[in-house]
């Protein structure tokens, strides 16, 4: 959402879903998305996606980068880095330029690291739940 | 030539005291024109249509948000619309960078124009803000804004009690892409371009939960001052081109400060444009 003094509307997330809010369908944004509620369907952002501690997502996420502090069921694809915070829980595959899992964060699925400098994917397969 | 549509009842009759000074200022700036006074609801729309028929290319609403809304509902074609804010609530003018009538005269003379797509809410067109929930209910309770310090404190106190007792609304919001279910204390729809002049015309939907005790006073104070607290207090925001709002229970809807209907209501961004004369800071 653009602040009043932000003429280009680039100062913050243009989509924000509060806790207690339930969304069914496609959540698309040309900017950043911050979610602290429930989303079922699809999430696509040209910018950064932040999944808050209260969020429950059942949807694939495609974004520039992502920070996960809540629960995500679905694949995550980012051009930049995906970070799972200590409260984060991801069940799904991650394709990303980098993956960071904080101590306490849970990731169940496989990860594939793709960087723009190295078009050939460097793959690391996770078997079963990983808890850092 | 400029065509000025004056609402003599706006702002509790402020125009009566300002009219001579206003005309002198406009004359000095070389933008004097024809003046017409409204006599009742809907008259500004009728006068705007009449002015266009007569060939005026600049129409100026002299009054508050209600007068501006009536004028834009009568606008067709490439006519420029100016505002001289003299109402109780002048949110549209404020959003265009026009703080008072003196500034408004300078802005009119400089004539910087920005185009905004109108939003249709049922049969009504608006350019700035649609609200429902606490702010709309409070508007209904407060007939006139308080003018004394004591009066303002009294209004703040009663509004705080009202905010505490106000039941949130179970809302279903349907856009072209998704359906959202939320409990809303307050909801507003504004043209995004009004908030960020260089951005595209889109519906910017903001929704807030009931503010906590600590935030309640500042929230209510902002509402009483005619500033949308949702700029800061919104917990949910998104952009859309079309929106259907359903609430349980059905509730009143305010458009640019005027009660226009009840939920359910369909809102959409239209191709119909209004060319506002805006302040340099907003161009």
Summarize the structure.
By secondary structure, chain A is mainly beta. Chain A is built from no helices and 18 strands.
How much helix, percentage-wise, in residues of chain A? under 10%
What Rg of chain B, in angstroms, do the CA atoms define? 19 Å
Number of domains of chain B: 2
What CATH first level of the largest domain in chain B would be assigned?
A: Mainly Beta
- CATH architecture field of the largest domain in chain B: Sandwich
Which secondary-structure class do the elements of chain A indicate?
mainly beta
Q: In angstroms, what is the radius of gyration of chain A?
A: 15 Å
The stretches of 5 or more residues of chain B where confidence is low (pLDDT under 50) are: none
- How would you describe the shape of chain A? globular
Distance between the first and last residues' Cα of chain A:
34 Å
User: Can you count the beta strands of chain A?
Assistant: 18
Low-pLDDT ranges of chain A: 1-11
Biggest beta-sheet profile of chain B:
10 strands, mixed
Q: Could you tell me the number of beta strands of chain B?
A: 16
Strand content of chain B: 35-45%
Number of helices of chain A: 0
- String of helices and strands of chain B: EHEHEHEHHEEEHHEEEHEHHEEEEE
- Average residue-wise pLDDT of chain B: 87
| Order of helical and strand elements of chain A | EEEEEEEEEEEEEEEEEE
């Amino acid at each position: 959402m653009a602040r009043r003094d932000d003429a280009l509307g680039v100062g913050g997330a243009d989509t924000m879903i509060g806790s207690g809010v339930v969304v069914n369908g496609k959540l698309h944004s040309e900017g950043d998305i911050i979610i602290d509620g429930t989303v079922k369907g699809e999430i696509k952002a040209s910018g950064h996606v932040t999944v808050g501690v209260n969020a429950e997502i059942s949807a694939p996420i495609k974004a520039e980068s992502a920070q996960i502090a809540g629960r995500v069921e679905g694949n995550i694809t980012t051009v930049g880095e995906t970070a799972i915070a200590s409260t984060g829980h991801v069940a799904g595959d991650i394709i990303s330029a980098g993956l960071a899992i904080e101590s306490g964060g849970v990731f169940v699925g496989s990860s594939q690291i793709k960087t723009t400098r190295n078009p050939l994917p460097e793959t690391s397969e996770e078997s079963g739940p990983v808890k850092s | 030539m400029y065509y000025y549509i004056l609402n003599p009842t706006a702002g509790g009759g402020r125009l009566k005291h300002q009219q001579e000074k206003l005309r002198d200022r406009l004359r000095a700036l070389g933008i004097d024109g024809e003046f017409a006074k409204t006599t009742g609801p809907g008259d500004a729309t009728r006068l705007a249509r009449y002015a266009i028929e007569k060939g005026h290319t600049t129409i100026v609403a002299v009054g508050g948000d209600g007068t501006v809304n009536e004028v834009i509902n009568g606008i067709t074609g490439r006519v420029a619309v100016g505002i001289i804010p003299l109402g109780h609530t002048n949110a549209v003018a404020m959003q265009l960078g026009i703080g008072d009538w003196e500034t408004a005269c300078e802005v009119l003379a400089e004539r910087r124009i920005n185009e905004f797509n109108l939003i249709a809410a049922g049969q009504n067109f608006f350019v700035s803000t649609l609200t429902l929930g606490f702010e709309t209910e409070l508007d209904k309770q407060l007939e006139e804004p308080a003018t004394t310090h004591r009066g303002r404190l009294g209004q703040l106190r009663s509004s705080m009690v009202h905010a505490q007792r106000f039941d949130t609304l179970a809302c279903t919001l349907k856009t072209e892409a998704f359906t959202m279910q939320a409990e809303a204390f307050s909801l507003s729809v504004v043209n995004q371009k009004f908030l960020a002049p260089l951005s595209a015309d889109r519906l910017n939907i903001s929704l807030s939960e009931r503010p906590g005790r600590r935030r309640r006073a500042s929230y209510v104070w902002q509402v009483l001052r005619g500033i949308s607290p949702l700029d800061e207090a919104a917990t949910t925001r998104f952009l859309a081109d079309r929106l259907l709002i359903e609430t349980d229970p059905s509730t009143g809807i305010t458009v640019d400060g005027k009660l226009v209907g009840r939920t359910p209501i369909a809102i959409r961004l239209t191709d119909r444009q209004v060319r506002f004369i805006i302040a340099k800071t907003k161009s």
